[in-house]
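Proteins fold reproducibly. Look at a concrete instance:
___
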Amino acid sequence: MKMEKIKEENHWAVETEQISYTYEGNEKKALDGVSLKLKKGRKIAFMGGNGSGKSTLFLCMNGILKPQEGKVRINGSPMEYTRKSLLEVRRKVGIVFQEPDDQLFSASVFQEISFGILNLGVDEESARKEVERVIEKLGITPFRDRPAHALSGGQKKLVSIADILVMHPEVLILDEPAASLDPKHRKLVRSIIGQLSESGLTILMATHDVDYAYAWADEIVLLHEGKVLRHGTPRQVCGDEEAMEQANLEAPAVMRLYRQLLRRGVIGPGEEQPKTIEDLERRISG
């Protein structure tokens, strides 16, 4: 009896194969042959200086930009650029822009969060229930009926995240989610991101905060001049002094302090490197 071969499940949420992109009027490539395989359910930080290609890469992963060379795959399927296919891609891969004003345009917060899910063809009653659920989850209720343009920066960021979550994406892309936020809203947004990570959502985040990326991420992708400089665990990437220097980034504070304590013999070489200063303090005092 012939046994049917079991189809292997695809474990990659997003794949890029040698993608390149050049903006009109520019000679230099914004992306130059970027190949990545990003596993489902992972927390992946994208780091690099301004102009390294992070935002352009995200726009290609979401289908907003079409690479001039190479391919993008979502769940193993090549991205197609028909209206119907792109609508499905943007349901699966949601992007929250660095500047909320680039994303928000509806009259009220409730209308803003409702727009995307209604655009997917969900009936009004089901959409309303889902919007209410997300509004409550993110603590948006106090300003749900206010005009989106009248909100504070932190409130706008919460609404822009709600815009995407209401559509139940499989991948959430966050472009500098804590940029320009006060400490209160930065902590709130990061707490929400932590909860979303625990739910199994694949999260791709651009950040300049090396300490946060080192503590939060499962993987770090280091970009420089449109190319992947390094991709690996936070310890592998942040421990590559040459790559970090080329990207004009410093190693995380906890890693620098750990190295000093190691040299002085305060910590033994066999001990696991801590992720945060608080972890290091507990280890020393304990």
Remarks:
- The longest strand covers residues 12-21.
- The CA atoms of residues 41 and 199 lie 9 Å apart.
- The two ends are 62 Å apart (CA to CA).
- Strands lie at 12-21, 31-39, 43-47, 69-74, 77-78, 93-96, 171-175, 202-206, 219-224, 227-232.
